[in-house]
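Write out this protein's structure.
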Amino acid sequence: MLAARLHAPGEELRLEQLPIPEPSGTEVRLRVAGCGVCRTDLHIVDGTQTRVDLPRTLGHEVAGFVDAVGPDAAAPLRRVRLAPGDPAVVSGGWGCGKCRDCRAGAEQRCERSLAPGFQRDGGYAEYMIVPHPRHLVGLGELDPSHAAPLADAGVTSYRAVRRAQPWLVSGGSVLLIGCGALGQFALQYLRLMRGGRDLHVVVRELDPAKLEVAAELGADVGLLDGDDQMTREALGGPADAVLDLVGTDETLAHAVATVAPNGVVLLIGEAGGRVTLGIDEPVLESWFTTVAWGSRDDLRDVVRLARRRRIKWETETMPLTEAAAAHAQLRSGDVRGRLVLVP
């Protein structure tokens, strides 16, 4: 099978022919239909992403078709209502299944988790191995090549909005920093939640084209960058919730300067930024938290919304053989929605 692999930080991806993997135990072999290209993949290539074992087939935003199962996988596959040939999306937090976080359904927080594209081979390939059927969510009639972004961009932003719900009261204000694939999903989830139509949502972006998308998806105000004061004026004061989907030093500083007392800053982007935390930074009695991917139940919720046509997203497909070109295009910023590699 063909796979795009990274051997060392700073190198280009290598296209290699590998044996088609055979599933054992509870493993499921997925025939990959599409794999989203995420900025985290670029961080892995650059060597700034921690806990990555190389060489590695990249790709953690994967959907495809159940192709083969190990001898112990048949019964658990039926329990998740899947059968060979069915389309499914991969929930990427592969935990130990036994610790407190795993038992609570938050395998992505497991200290011993192994994730595709990080510690296990991922979806930049024609086939991949998923360790257990519980990591698969059926897609029904959805096209798996189009649905691949649900596995990360869709579910991570869903978890962020869900965690921010206590602060998202009707008439409240929200600042979204970044309106790429994750931000576009987040904006839709904000509007779908109870009272979401009455939120005042401001989007801060560097790309005018993405601000146009934000307006189409229901943003009240779009700011082409802008300083702290301009953002506060657009919000009508400090923000009850700030979702930073970029995560640089600059965007985090802007988030901290914009959040209201008793408001919340959620760091979702993984650009490696840092912020100083103290008694009054962010402002007194405000909250700062991070968001780690999404749980399997989160992904099920997202797939249900997608199947009901409650959310929409744009994809641009590229052949797997052009994985390096896809990385270059993402670095350039010339992406409206999500790039998806198709074997």
